[in-house]
Amino acid sequence: MKKGTFLVLILCSVLTFNNTQAQLLKKLKDKVNQAANKVLDKKVDSTINTAAGLPADGEGSSGTGTGPNGKPVNKGGAGLKNTPPPDVAEQIKEAETANTAGNYSDARYAIQQALIGVELQIGKEILKSLPITVNSLPADTLQDKLVSTQWGWNNLTILRVYTDGKDKEATISIGNNLMYSSLAYLYFNNTYMQANMNDQNIKQIKVKGNKAIIQYDDSKGYTLIVPLGQSSMIVWECVNYADETEVTNTAAAFDIDGLKKMLGEQ
Protein backbone atom coordinates (compact mmCIF):
# COMPACT_ATOMS: atom_id res chain seq x y z
CA MET A 1 0.00 0.00 0.00
CA LYS A 2 1.28 3.33 -0.88
CA LYS A 3 2.32 5.60 1.94
CA GLY A 4 -0.11 8.35 0.84
CA THR A 5 -3.07 6.01 0.70
CA PHE A 6 -2.19 4.64 4.15
CA LEU A 7 -2.05 8.14 5.61
CA VAL A 8 -5.41 8.98 4.07
CA LEU A 9 -6.97 5.86 5.63
CA ILE A 10 -5.49 6.71 9.00
CA LEU A 11 -6.77 10.28 8.73
CA CYS A 12 -10.28 9.11 7.78
CA SER A 13 -10.28 6.69 10.70
CA VAL A 14 -9.25 9.45 13.09
CA LEU A 15 -11.88 11.83 11.73
CA THR A 16 -14.55 9.14 11.89
CA PHE A 17 -13.56 8.33 15.48
CA ASN A 18 -13.53 12.00 16.46
CA ASN A 19 -16.92 12.62 14.82
CA THR A 20 -18.44 9.59 16.55
CA GLN A 21 -16.89 10.66 19.84
CA ALA A 22 -18.27 14.20 19.39
CA GLN A 23 -21.76 12.83 18.76
CA LEU A 24 -21.53 10.65 21.86
CA LEU A 25 -20.32 13.59 23.91
CA LYS A 26 -23.19 15.75 22.59
CA LYS A 27 -25.75 13.09 23.48
CA LEU A 28 -24.20 12.70 26.89
CA LYS A 29 -24.21 16.47 27.36
CA ASP A 30 -27.89 16.69 26.31
CA LYS A 31 -28.83 13.96 28.79
CA VAL A 32 -26.91 15.69 31.55
CA ASN A 33 -28.64 18.99 30.73
CA GLN A 34 -32.06 17.32 30.72
CA ALA A 35 -31.41 15.71 34.07
CA ALA A 36 -30.13 18.98 35.50
CA ASN A 37 -33.16 20.85 34.19
CA LYS A 38 -35.50 18.32 35.77
CA VAL A 39 -33.76 18.69 39.10
CA LEU A 40 -33.80 22.48 38.78
CA ASP A 41 -37.46 22.54 37.76
CA LYS A 42 -38.34 20.29 40.67
CA LYS A 43 -36.48 22.54 43.09
CA VAL A 44 -38.17 25.64 41.65
CA ASP A 45 -41.61 24.00 41.84
CA SER A 46 -40.91 22.87 45.38
CA THR A 47 -39.86 26.38 46.41
CA ILE A 48 -42.94 27.96 44.81
CA ASN A 49 -45.30 25.39 46.33
CA THR A 50 -43.77 25.84 49.77
CA ALA A 51 -44.13 29.61 49.54
CA ALA A 52 -47.77 29.18 48.47
CA GLY A 53 -48.50 26.80 51.31
CA LEU A 54 -48.86 23.79 48.99
CA PRO A 55 -47.22 20.39 49.25
CA ALA A 56 -43.58 20.64 48.18
CA ASP A 57 -43.96 17.74 45.72
CA GLY A 58 -46.63 19.66 43.80
CA GLU A 59 -49.19 16.86 44.08
CA GLY A 60 -51.78 18.88 45.98
CA SER A 61 -53.59 17.31 48.89
CA SER A 62 -53.65 13.80 47.45
CA GLY A 63 -51.45 10.97 48.64
CA THR A 64 -50.46 11.32 52.24
CA GLY A 65 -52.75 14.31 52.82
CA THR A 66 -49.95 16.26 54.45
CA GLY A 67 -48.37 19.56 53.48
CA PRO A 68 -45.03 21.18 54.26
CA ASN A 69 -43.50 20.16 57.58
CA GLY A 70 -45.78 17.15 57.73
CA LYS A 71 -48.86 19.17 58.65
CA PRO A 72 -52.26 18.02 57.39
CA VAL A 73 -53.74 19.80 54.38
CA ASN A 74 -57.37 20.90 54.60
CA LYS A 75 -59.45 19.11 51.97
CA GLY A 76 -62.69 21.00 52.38
CA GLY A 77 -65.34 22.25 54.75
CA ALA A 78 -68.76 23.82 54.94
CA GLY A 79 -67.36 27.33 55.43
CA LEU A 80 -69.24 30.01 57.35
CA LYS A 81 -72.90 30.91 57.12
CA ASN A 82 -74.23 34.46 57.09
CA THR A 83 -75.67 35.40 60.45
CA PRO A 84 -78.69 37.69 60.77
CA PRO A 85 -78.14 41.19 62.18
CA PRO A 86 -78.55 41.54 65.96
CA ASP A 87 -82.14 41.62 67.18
CA VAL A 88 -82.38 45.06 68.80
CA ALA A 89 -85.20 44.24 71.24
CA GLU A 90 -83.56 40.96 72.30
CA GLN A 91 -80.18 42.63 72.84
CA ILE A 92 -81.75 45.38 74.97
CA LYS A 93 -83.50 42.72 77.06
CA GLU A 94 -80.18 40.88 77.53
CA ALA A 95 -78.49 44.15 78.51
CA GLU A 96 -81.14 44.80 81.19
CA THR A 97 -80.80 41.27 82.54
CA ALA A 98 -77.00 41.48 82.66
CA ASN A 99 -77.12 44.92 84.27
CA THR A 100 -79.51 43.69 86.98
CA ALA A 101 -77.17 40.80 87.69
CA GLY A 102 -74.23 43.18 87.95
CA ASN A 103 -72.57 41.67 84.88
CA TYR A 104 -71.66 45.00 83.31
CA SER A 105 -69.33 43.57 80.68
CA ASP A 106 -72.16 41.49 79.18
CA ALA A 107 -74.51 44.46 79.52
CA ARG A 108 -72.11 46.67 77.58
CA TYR A 109 -71.68 44.03 74.87
CA ALA A 110 -75.44 43.61 74.49
CA ILE A 111 -75.88 47.38 74.14
CA GLN A 112 -73.18 47.42 71.47
CA GLN A 113 -74.97 44.66 69.57
CA ALA A 114 -78.28 46.50 69.85
CA LEU A 115 -76.75 49.67 68.42
CA ILE A 116 -75.16 47.71 65.59
CA GLY A 117 -78.60 46.27 64.84
CA VAL A 118 -80.05 49.79 64.70
CA GLU A 119 -77.31 50.91 62.33
CA LEU A 120 -77.84 47.97 60.01
CA GLN A 121 -81.59 48.61 59.89
CA ILE A 122 -80.96 52.25 58.99
CA GLY A 123 -78.37 51.17 56.43
CA LYS A 124 -80.90 48.89 54.75
CA GLU A 125 -83.39 51.73 54.57
CA ILE A 126 -80.75 53.98 53.02
CA LEU A 127 -79.95 51.38 50.36
CA LYS A 128 -83.65 51.13 49.54
CA SER A 129 -83.81 54.92 49.14
CA LEU A 130 -80.95 55.11 46.63
CA PRO A 131 -81.86 55.42 42.94
CA ILE A 132 -81.84 52.25 40.86
CA THR A 133 -80.43 54.05 37.82
CA VAL A 134 -78.20 57.13 37.69
CA ASN A 135 -77.58 58.88 34.39
CA SER A 136 -78.30 55.68 32.44
CA LEU A 137 -76.06 53.57 34.69
CA PRO A 138 -78.00 50.78 36.45
CA ALA A 139 -77.20 49.76 40.00
CA ASP A 140 -75.45 46.43 40.47
CA THR A 141 -77.27 45.53 43.69
CA LEU A 142 -75.27 42.28 43.99
CA GLN A 143 -72.36 44.49 45.00
CA ASP A 144 -74.32 46.31 47.73
CA LYS A 145 -72.43 46.32 51.01
CA LEU A 146 -73.49 47.26 54.50
CA VAL A 147 -70.94 47.16 57.32
CA SER A 148 -71.17 48.21 60.95
CA THR A 149 -68.33 47.39 63.33
CA GLN A 150 -69.41 49.32 66.44
CA TRP A 151 -71.89 52.05 67.27
CA GLY A 152 -71.66 55.56 65.85
CA TRP A 153 -71.81 56.53 62.20
CA ASN A 154 -68.03 56.59 61.97
CA ASN A 155 -68.24 52.78 61.87
CA LEU A 156 -71.14 52.45 59.42
CA THR A 157 -70.38 52.04 55.70
CA ILE A 158 -72.96 51.74 52.92
CA LEU A 159 -71.79 51.03 49.39
CA ARG A 160 -73.46 50.75 46.00
CA VAL A 161 -72.02 50.41 42.49
CA TYR A 162 -73.53 51.73 39.26
CA THR A 163 -72.01 50.30 36.11
CA ASP A 164 -72.62 49.70 32.41
CA GLY A 165 -70.84 46.36 32.74
CA LYS A 166 -67.99 47.57 30.54
CA ASP A 167 -65.70 50.44 31.46
CA LYS A 168 -67.93 53.12 32.98
CA GLU A 169 -68.67 52.93 36.69
CA ALA A 170 -69.74 55.06 39.65
CA THR A 171 -69.26 53.81 43.20
CA ILE A 172 -71.01 55.62 46.05
CA SER A 173 -70.06 55.07 49.67
CA ILE A 174 -71.97 56.62 52.57
CA GLY A 175 -70.74 56.85 56.14
CA ASN A 176 -67.20 56.32 57.28
CA ASN A 177 -64.47 56.54 54.64
CA LEU A 178 -60.98 56.55 56.12
CA MET A 179 -59.39 56.92 52.70
CA TYR A 180 -60.83 60.40 52.17
CA SER A 181 -61.62 61.65 55.68
CA SER A 182 -58.14 63.13 56.17
CA LEU A 183 -58.30 64.94 52.83
CA ALA A 184 -61.71 66.41 53.64
CA TYR A 185 -60.53 67.50 57.08
CA LEU A 186 -57.42 69.20 55.73
CA TYR A 187 -59.20 70.89 52.85
CA PHE A 188 -62.16 72.25 54.79
CA ASN A 189 -59.89 73.47 57.57
CA ASN A 190 -57.95 75.57 55.05
CA THR A 191 -54.70 73.69 55.51
CA TYR A 192 -54.67 72.04 52.09
CA MET A 193 -52.59 73.88 49.48
CA GLN A 194 -52.85 73.34 45.76
CA ALA A 195 -49.43 72.46 44.40
CA ASN A 196 -49.99 73.77 40.89
CA MET A 197 -52.71 76.36 40.39
CA ASN A 198 -52.28 76.19 36.62
CA ASP A 199 -53.11 72.51 36.56
CA GLN A 200 -55.66 72.18 39.33
CA ASN A 201 -56.66 68.60 40.17
CA ILE A 202 -58.70 69.33 43.29
CA LYS A 203 -61.09 72.12 44.20
CA GLN A 204 -64.03 73.02 46.39
CA ILE A 205 -67.52 73.21 44.88
CA LYS A 206 -71.15 72.93 45.99
CA VAL A 207 -73.58 70.14 45.24
CA LYS A 208 -77.24 70.90 45.91
CA GLY A 209 -76.16 73.58 48.37
CA ASN A 210 -73.68 71.32 50.20
CA LYS A 211 -69.96 71.99 50.40
CA ALA A 212 -67.97 69.44 48.42
CA ILE A 213 -64.53 68.57 47.10
CA ILE A 214 -63.95 67.26 43.60
CA GLN A 215 -60.67 65.69 42.61
CA TYR A 216 -59.34 64.24 39.36
CA ASP A 217 -56.63 61.65 38.80
CA ASP A 218 -55.67 60.16 35.43
CA SER A 219 -55.55 56.62 36.82
CA LYS A 220 -58.58 56.77 39.12
CA GLY A 221 -60.90 59.24 37.41
CA TYR A 222 -63.09 61.66 39.41
CA THR A 223 -63.73 61.63 43.15
CA LEU A 224 -66.45 63.80 44.68
CA ILE A 225 -66.73 64.17 48.46
CA VAL A 226 -69.66 65.71 50.36
CA PRO A 227 -69.23 65.80 54.17
CA LEU A 228 -72.42 64.95 56.04
CA GLY A 229 -71.32 65.71 59.58
CA GLN A 230 -68.42 65.38 61.96
CA SER A 231 -67.43 61.88 60.92
CA SER A 232 -69.48 60.81 57.91
CA MET A 233 -69.51 61.70 54.22
CA ILE A 234 -70.76 60.68 50.81
CA VAL A 235 -68.08 59.77 48.26
CA TRP A 236 -68.66 59.25 44.55
CA GLU A 237 -65.84 57.55 42.65
CA CYS A 238 -66.50 57.93 38.94
CA VAL A 239 -64.46 56.04 36.36
CA ASN A 240 -64.41 57.00 32.67
CA TYR A 241 -66.65 60.04 33.10
CA ALA A 242 -66.34 62.72 30.44
CA ASP A 243 -65.97 65.75 32.73
CA GLU A 244 -66.77 67.18 36.15
CA THR A 245 -70.24 68.30 35.03
CA GLU A 246 -71.21 64.68 34.42
CA VAL A 247 -69.92 63.83 37.90
CA THR A 248 -71.88 66.60 39.64
CA ASN A 249 -75.02 65.61 37.70
CA THR A 250 -74.60 62.08 39.05
CA ALA A 251 -74.30 63.39 42.61
CA ALA A 252 -77.33 65.62 42.13
CA ALA A 253 -79.44 62.52 41.42
CA PHE A 254 -79.15 61.59 45.12
CA ASP A 255 -81.24 63.03 47.95
CA ILE A 256 -78.33 64.33 50.00
CA ASP A 257 -80.49 66.16 52.56
CA GLY A 258 -82.64 63.06 52.95
CA LEU A 259 -79.54 60.96 53.61
CA LYS A 260 -78.44 63.46 56.25
CA LYS A 261 -81.77 63.11 58.04
CA MET A 262 -81.69 59.32 57.91
CA LEU A 263 -78.22 59.35 59.45
CA GLY A 264 -79.27 61.83 62.09
CA GLU A 265 -76.85 64.48 60.83
CA GLN A 266 -79.53 67.14 60.34
TrEMBL record:
Query: Could you say which residues form the signal peptide?
Result: 1-22
Sorted UniProt keywords: Coiled coil, Signal
Q: Per its UniProt entry, which superkingdom is the organism in?
A: Bacteria
Question: Is Signal included in the keywords of this UniProt record?
Answer: yes
Indicate the segments annotated as coiled coil, or none if absent.
Answer: 18-45
Entry annotated with the keyword Signal: yes
Region labeled Disordered — which residues?
A: 51-87
Name recorded for this polypeptide = Uncharacterized protein
